[in-house]
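User: Hi! Is it possible to get a structure for several chains at once, not just one? Here's what I have:
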Amino acid sequence: MITGVAVVPSAPLLLPEYTGRSDAGAAVRERSVALVRSVVSGCGPASRVVLVAATDREPRSSRPPLGRRVGIHLLDLAGAGADDVVEVPWDASVAECRATGDALGAGAGEVLLVVVADGSARRGEKAPGHLDERALDVDRDLLDALRAADPTRLLALDPGLCAELLVHGRAPLQVAAAAMSASGPMRCADLEAGDPFGVLYVTARLEPVRP
Amino acid sequence: MRTGAPLRMGRQEYPATARLVMAIVNRTPDSFYDRGITWAEDAAMERVRMVVEQGADLVDIGGIKAAPGAEIDAAEEMRRVVGFVERVRGEFPDLVISVDTWRAEVGRAVCAAGADVLNDAWGGADPELPSVAADFGVSIVRTHTGGVAPRTRPHRIEYDDVVADARTSLLAQAEQCVELGVDRSRVMIDPAHDFGKNTYHSLELTRRLDELTTLDWPVLVSLSNKDFVGEALDLPVGERLTGTLAATALSAWHGAQVYRVHEVVETRQVLDLVSVVAGDLRPARTTRGLA
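Assistant: Yes, the chains can be modeled jointly so their relative placement is included. Here is the combined structure:
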């Protein structure tokens, strides 16, 4: 059973090794850590914390994927740790994501998901992937789906289009969506989004609907 | 890339990786670069405020220009700097204040007024100056001039090896300070570009500065707009900033720690860039490829 979901950004600038004297990611990090802390404390100690992160889109090193490292760092700052890590290929098919998520959501134990996921990195002319106007629509779909805590809409995100638009969170979000489907209805308790560097960062908290 | 040695000035302690800007403040009517623009005390005070705002780590107050000119006796030198040091100290209680003087008598008066560093720019011309530093517990800069008299220009001087000469002289002067009671971390050495040197000498010192920065004494360099920069590029005073900054970067890479300069902002940027490349300082702000 999924007892809570935290969605946090995967920007490398949140890591200490990529922080300058003036901390460009301070506000996003602060918000992410507060959100993780609230989800962890809301779920209680019985929940297993499972980190869901994508592999790197352009791997060049032997280091663990950036999303995984950012997630572990944010958990660490929140005073928590990951009991398990699900590393999903950034370009996994919806079926693969669904299979992974089903297994997570259908289990007997309580599971809290920390999903490291961003929207498009093509949201402006200065964005890492330059501007693609389609990014705004796809990001809107993604945010609407999260606000509605609607797994079906999350699972409807198109892998090919998301890849073109550098939506790095599509696969982890679809793993989480499948887990939510298998577990029970949820609601969005908190969501903030912003794109200070042309990438859509989302911090969101989803919790089970209580009868 | 090298770093220097731990350094103390005033109440400040700096690590071996520090690269510090010492802003020149002239209380002279005739210095070569600023031509008396801060001769009036209020103008000099305004410059102090400006360089502090620009990020200078310390100021170096001088009452006599280095080049030959009208004789300035100790009484006149003191009139120019002692009260001014007192005024700067009053307005900036924590600012490290250096005074450029070779005279022990002047040194004693400025230390009493609140100076933290004696910049003995003429290579120990007055043998009593280190004792003043010891008595007041202040820092001191020892310089290599080849033994020329203060305020003289070099003329047809040759060294077998100018770097070796500087090394021998500076080590002896630095050790002498410690023997006289100056704290070891309060002694800086300065090869004194252009002092007792032609351009070839100053260039060689710049090229081989690592032979001085590895002696375990903090190294100060005074390169700003000097003739060796001008002659290297055939540029007059007023057009030497780029050359000065290039020499600054090379010296920083060699491990010099204190830079006596006219232009604070530009020097600060060069030193910070070197520190960032060296890994001694984080970049200011990073998002490229990391968002």
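The interface with chain A takes residues 281-287, 289-291 of chain B (CB under 8 Å). Strands of chain B lie at 7-9, 12-14, 20-26, 58-62, 96-100, 117-119, 139-143, 187-190, 220-221, 258-261.

User: Great, thank you!
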